Amino acid sequence: MHIRDIFAAHKTTFSFEFFPPKKDEAWDDLFAEIVCLQGLEPSFVSVTYGAGGSTRERTHDLVVRIQKETKLTAVSHLTCVCHNREELAAILERYAASGIENILALRGDPPRDKPNHDRSTDAFRYAGELVRFIREYAGPGGRPFGIGVAGFPEGHPDTPNRLKELDNLKAKVDSGAEYVCTQLFFDNHHFYDFRDRCDLAGIKVPIMAGIMPVTSKKNLIHMAELSAGSNIPAALLRAIERCETDDDVARVGAHWATNQCFDLLNNHVRGIHFYTLNRSDATREIYANLGVKNSSRLRP
Which residues are designated catalytic? Predict the structure, then answer.
């Protein structure tokens, strides 16, 4: 389903994010998690993207498998880095042929095995340019692809000027982006301030809140690396320090994320996007805590 139709059909969207496993033996386990979450009837699921050749193919394979073997709507991430125009055009044509209707357009970072990649060789340096490029291509049935972009409630790590940051986001929306999905955050006040500033800047598309429940102390460190510049509240850190096992941490993480979601729903969030780290248990627990059997129950 096209993202425009998804937002028209749901008062609040619920979506999950996965990443393609690097090892072949992990594929069946991941797909079992995806099938498990299918019972929650999310509005859509998204798949992260690596610029490297093998990782790129794994993203495409996973998105297509979700599209063909489940009832879920799959959104594929796509980045600018390590791509020329011909490669990007070929990817879009493959997605259209596979029935993929929606793309999350990102600038992206160089692969770990190419830390010194020369960005001047890329077709585009910024996500806004990629949005314009995607908008020129027809998706399945000739309808333009649905396009999303990223938002940063606590500031983009490469743009310390917050006014300039919103100008850049507005440019992406003006180029054709139809929704914004935020980086993860743990304090909802950052999200509400970001949403208000977007409104003042004239950004009127749906803004989804990115939520990642903490599942272990190791996971917390990884999350801090993923969300450069994101603040982890002292209250959450204290609660995790009191935990003796990772099971205790997971319970604290699910409780914290549940409270975030309750508050977001009470403040009319347009969508909640769960960064699952390829595990379904935390997301299923949060759903149960919220009393939401599936996202289709929240209609406009």
Answer: 17
Number of structural domains the chain divides into: 1
Residue type, 180: V
The angle formed by the CA atoms of residues 230, 15 and 220, to the nearest 5 degrees, is: 30
As given in the structure block, the two tokens for residue 93 are 């044509």
CATH code for position 130: 3.20.20.220
Mapped onto helix, strand or coil, the DSSP state of residue 32 is helix
In a 3-state reduction of DSSP, which class is residue 134?
Answer: helix
CA distances 96 to 77, 100, 102, 287, Å, are 14, 6, 9, 32
Structural domain harbouring 276: 3-297
Q: Is residue 80 within 8 Å of 106, Cβ to Cβ?
A: yes
Per-residue pLDDT of the chain (300 residues; tens, 9 = 90+): 999 999 999 999 999 999 888 888 888 889 988 988 888 999 999 999 865 545 678 888 899 999 999 999 999 999 988 888 999 999 999 999 999 999 999 988 776 667 677 777 888 988 999 999 999 998 898 999 999 999 999 987 777 777 888 999 999 999 999 999 999 999 999 999 999 999 999 999 999 999 999 999 888 877 777 666 678 899 999 999 999 999 999 999 999 999 999 999 999 999 999 999 888 899 899 988 998 765 544 444
Helices 246-266 and 281-290 pack at an angle, to 10 degrees, of 40
Radius of gyration of the chain (CA): 18
Q: Which two tokens stand for residue 192?
A: 């509400």
Report the alpha-carbon distance of residue 65 to residue 63 in Å, rounded. Answer: 5
Instruction: Report how far apart, in Å, the C-alpha atoms of 122 and of each of 84, 160, 174 are.
Output: 5, 24, 22
**Nearest Cα residue to 208 out of 39, 68, 23, 13:** 13
Beta strands in the chain (DSSP E): 13-18, 44-47, 74-79, 102-106, 146-151, 179-184, 207-211, 271-275
Phi then psi for 232, rounded to 5 degrees? Answer: -100, 110
Measured distance between the N- and C-terminal CA atoms of the chain, rounded to whole angstroms = 17
